[in-house]
Amino acid sequence: MSNLIALIKVDFLNLTGINKLLKETSKKEKSRIILMFLTVAISIGMLVFIASKYFMEIGKLLSTVGGLEILLYFGVIGSTALIFFTSLYKAQGFLFGQKDFDFLMALPLKSYTILLSKLLNLVVINYLVEIIVMVPPAIIYFMNSNSNFLNVINFIILFIFVPFIPIVVASVVAFIISYVSSRMKYKNLATIIMSFIAVILFMAISMNLDNSIRPEALDVNGICNMLKKAYIPSYYFTLAIKDLNFLYASNFILLSIAVFSLFIYVFNKSFKVINSKLMETYKKDNYKMKDLSESSQLKALIKKEMKRYFSSSVYVLNTFFGIVLLTIVSIIALFFGQDQLMKILDIPVAKDLIGNFVIVIMSFCVVMTCTTSSSISLESNNLWILKSSPIRTIDIFKSKIIFNLSLILPAVMMNSVLLAIAFKATLIQLLWYLIIPTLYGITVAIGGLIINLYFPKLVWTSETVVVKQSLSSFLGVMLGMVIVVIPVISFIFLKIRNINIFISILALVLICIIFILCNILKNKGVELFNKL
């Protein structure tokens, strides 16, 4: 037990960055870490506030038809879905193929202890997801219903067990993906493809469920029955709180513990094998002498970036999904029509603006593809090789930016044509489809690199920590969201009539931002890199 507690403590301190804050001696670095915690805390607070406002409006509507318990259903199912989605990414690189696997196996620890510590850390981290997704609707429910202190206590107890089942399901899916891919020559490629398929299937099922539970299509009882069928534990959870039914509360808790325990018991037998297999590499034995070729430093650096990128399934899954999503959207629009696409996306847009709304969809997908916000951190122990090589720092920056753009630009060009055909776009609209997402891609590529230079995370045990949980990756995502959302909000509130003039101004603003970012990178960026 003492070993388990120690492992959980060490993993948690490293994952959250608390350990670095406690041990750091530099005041400047401490200030940077504190800023990171404040940024995350403020972001969580804002998300909770926005979610609360949203569920408050839904609560008013549901209270008039006697369906307040739907809020509890939404909370637990929404949390479960998001926990599954995030855990699917985290499990690969956290449970499987973790950097500290060899070190932990060398210690006098049972594999059961290591596995349990990893899983419990996943549980603790996902409590943040619950706070954001499940607490707001629960608060609105308690405010508008005849709940008492016991209902709240019941909710708090059940809250602890909500992540167990989705984490286990996500871990099983991640295990299958990792196990199958470990038996293939191109393990990472297999992992990436299967993970994308799993996520796309999950999204398709979620969209289908969402379309099946519209209030206008079903009454309150119908919606509750549909949600019950979708996820039976949500039924136990809801009635346990609504009716103070301790039998259902016991069912929920026991089911969660049983699933969690069964997974640990079964998977513990394969934990060493699967992780050891993931550490293996393939070597060709048919080496042949060929003519020696050479390339420029920049080209060699770009190749290095490409190999590093595709060697990490977590890196690809976290940064390439926007491009995959954009391609799926384009195919749906082309083969099923724009009306079907807008119905699936469930976004109310005036018919005369649908053609230009494509720019927003493309831009959102493009800004999700920011590889540079983690590229410096992922160098980790190999950073000294770059710094000691006779390579200009600016060329290192160029290689990372060019590689990021090599993922974005071909997709933008291809999908622009597909969407232009699907939406019967004019020539000017097609040009905007090409120009605006490209400018956004350049902006996030340069901006992400600058952010990573300011907030590097060079000490880590899992790539997942860098790609998904570091401040630089978080700020990289926020940068992309902000620069897309601000123009959209401006367009709505300013009631713009001439869309082409507005987009022209947006393009000029983005060009100015790119110019400013380039100057920052050339001056401050080089200075920050040399200090690493």
Which terms would index this structure?
26 helices; mainly alpha; transmembrane helix; 532 residues; single chain; transmembrane; membrane
Structure description:
The longest helix has 38 residues. With 532 residues, this protein is mostly helical. The chain has 26 helices and no strands. The protein has 2 domains: 277 residues, no CATH class; 235 residues, no CATH class. Keywords: Membrane, Transmembrane, Transmembrane helix. It comes from Clostridium senegalense. This is ABC transporter permease.
User: Proportion of β residues?
Assistant: under 5%
Structural class label:
mainly alpha
Overall geometry comes to globular
Low-pLDDT stretches:
none
What distance lies between the first and last C-alpha atoms, to the nearest angstrom? Answer: 39 Å
Helix content estimate: over 70%
Count of structural domains: 2
Number of helices: 26
- What is the N-to-C order of secondary-structure elements (H for helix, E for strand)? HHHHHHHHHHHHHHHHHHHHHHHHHH
Query: How many β-strand runs?
Result: 0
Transmembrane segments: 33-50, 70-89, 119-143, 155-177, 189-209, 246-267, 314-337, 357-380, 401-424, 430-454, 474-493, 499-521
Organism: Clostridium senegalense
Keywords: Membrane, Transmembrane, Transmembrane helix
Protein name: ABC transporter permease
